[in-house]
């Protein structure tokens, strides 16, 4: 059956009318009172009320988690169920305060009530054990909360000096030389702490054994390449990042015994040419940190560095991820706003940037946990590669 534009317009028209009617209904105090009483609408009304309260109370929940992390509660509970009285001296709290924390943690499934007034690990608390990436992010969020105390000022652009802007110093620095080692060390370590989770997603989605050499652009201290090296022990590796960051990667590769197969390059990915020789280049959580103009600059540099048969491997959290919409648009949307640049993008928006940069055959791969990272592969437009190669020959 062929759908005419008139049919499409009519459906859109009736959809808008239905949604307008629904909105009027839901905003009516009389309807809300009625929905809270009737048996078939009462569960829905209660669920909506809980969801709204959770939005209001979300900051308190995160602070309970922060208290648990800073007091090392999860490791203590991993030793076995204990009472508040037993835990209190190890937490540096009195029994009443320990009881308050344990009850709060249990309500959030971080802890769990056991027999004999004991508490053990809850399912979410258990996930924190041996998970340094999440623990590091919980501590790191103190900066984000400070920046979000006035979200309207961030949206209006009237607040330019933020904790995250100072922390992610490269986001507001015009030149790599302006960054001190101390500025770079903290954020590089934070990225490295969470990198194993992301690396596992990428390596499960895309096989690298078909490639001759991998270049990781913006590769930090080499955490992703270290994971690749374990999976593919014969694959030559290259890394490109700011000079002070690249030096940390070089030291890591030496410690890990990878210096013979991992070559490190220092430079500014916004202005310096990328090294050639790799037939696959990865951008792991790089593009969403930058506004469109810089993102295009990076992608075009990658395309120039790839051979005709090369592949771009791009991985990052993306907007409109089914089941994880708040992570892409609410969390990363405001995190990057506080950082000072970048934005979460939908897969279609990323494909548009790739097409503008000379990439074709853009394809989104399935990942096990899309909320952590989605993976897209693309190939250079062969005509563009040939044109650039001929231009380089003419210049020489």
Structural description of this entry:
Residues 1-6 and 392-396 have low confidence and may be disordered. This protein has 17 helices and 10 strands. The radius of gyration is 25 Å and the shape is globular. It is an alpha/beta fold and 396 residues long. Helix 8 packs across helix 11 (181-205). It has 2 domains: 42-126, Orthogonal Bundle (Arc Repressor Mutant, subunit A); 135-395, 3-Layer(aba) Sandwich (Rossmann fold). It has helices spanning 5-26, 29-37, 42-70, 73-78, 84-91, 95-107, 123-126, 132-147, 151-156, 163-167, 181-205, 223-231, 243-255, 292-305, 325-339, 347-356, 382-395, and strands spanning 82-83, 111-114, 118-121, 214-217, 237-241, 262-266, 280-284, 311-316, 359-365, 374-380. It starts with a helix and ends with a helix. Helix content is 55%, strand content 12%. The strands form 2 sheets. Strands 6-5-4-7-8-10-9 form a 7-stranded mixed beta sheet, sandwiched between helices. Strands 1-3-2 form a 3-stranded antiparallel beta sheet. Strand 4, helix 12 and strand 5 (237-241) form a beta-alpha-beta unit.
Map the helices and strands.
Layout: H1 5-26, H2 29-37, H3 42-70, H4 73-78, E1 82-83, H5 84-91, H6 95-107, E2 111-114, E3 118-121, H7 123-126, H8 132-147, H9 151-156, H10 163-167, H11 181-205, E4 214-217, H12 223-231, E5 237-241, H13 243-255, E6 262-266, E7 280-284, H14 292-305, E8 311-316, H15 325-339, H16 347-356, E9 359-365, E10 374-380, H17 382-395
Parallel strand pairs: 4-5, 4-7, 5-6, 7-8
Antiparallel strand pairs: 1-3, 2-3, 8-10, 9-10
């Amino acid at each position: 059956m062929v759908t005419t534009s008139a049919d499409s317009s009519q459906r859109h028209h009736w959809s808008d009318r239905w949604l307008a009617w629904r909105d009027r209904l839901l905003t009516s105090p009389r309807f809300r009172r009625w929905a809270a009483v009737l048996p078939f609408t009462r569960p829905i009304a209660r669920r909506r009320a809980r969801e709204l309260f959770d939005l209001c109370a979300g900051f308190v929940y995160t602070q309970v988690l922060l208290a648990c992390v800073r007091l090392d509660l999860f490791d203590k509970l991993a030793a076995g169920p204990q009472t508040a009285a037993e835990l209190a001296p190890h937490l540096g709290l009195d029994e009443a305060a320990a009881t308050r924390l344990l009850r709060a943690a249990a309500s959030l499934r971080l802890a769990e009530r056991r027999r004999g007034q004991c508490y053990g690990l809850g399912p979410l608390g258990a996930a924190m054990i041996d998970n340094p990436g999440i623990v590091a992010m919980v501590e790191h969020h103190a900066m984000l909360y400070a920046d979000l105390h006035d979200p309207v000022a961030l949206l209006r652009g009237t607040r330019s000096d933020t904790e995250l802007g100072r922390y992610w110093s490269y986001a507001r620095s015009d030149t790599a030389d302006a960054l001190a080692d101390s500025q770079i060390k903290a954020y590089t370590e934070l990225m490295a702490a969470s990198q194993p989770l992301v690396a596992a997603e990428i390596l499960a989605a895309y096989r690298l054994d078909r490639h001759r050499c991998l270049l990781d652009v913006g590769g930090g201290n080499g955490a992703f390449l270290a994971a690749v090296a374990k999976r593919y022990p014969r694959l030559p590796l290259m890394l490109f990042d700011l000079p002070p960051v690249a030096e940390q990667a070089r030291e890591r590769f030496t410690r890990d015994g990878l210096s013979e197969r991992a070559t490190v390059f220092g430079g500014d990915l916004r202005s310096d040419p990328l090294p050639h020789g790799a037939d696959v280049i990865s951008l792991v959580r790089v593009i969403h940190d930058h506004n469109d103009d810089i993102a295009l600059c990076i992608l075009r540099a990658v395309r120039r560095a790839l051979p005709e048969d090369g592949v771009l491997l791009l991985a990052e959290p993306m907007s409109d991820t089914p089941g994880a919409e708040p992570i892409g648009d609410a969390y990363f949307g405001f995190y990057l706003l506080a950082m000072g640049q970048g934005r979460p993008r939908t897969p279609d928006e990323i494909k548009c940037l790739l097409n503008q940069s000379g990439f074709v055959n853009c394809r989104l791969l399935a990942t096990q946990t899309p909320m952590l990272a989605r993976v897209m592969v693309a190939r250079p437009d062969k005509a563009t590669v040939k044109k650039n190669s001929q231009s380089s020959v003419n210049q020489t």
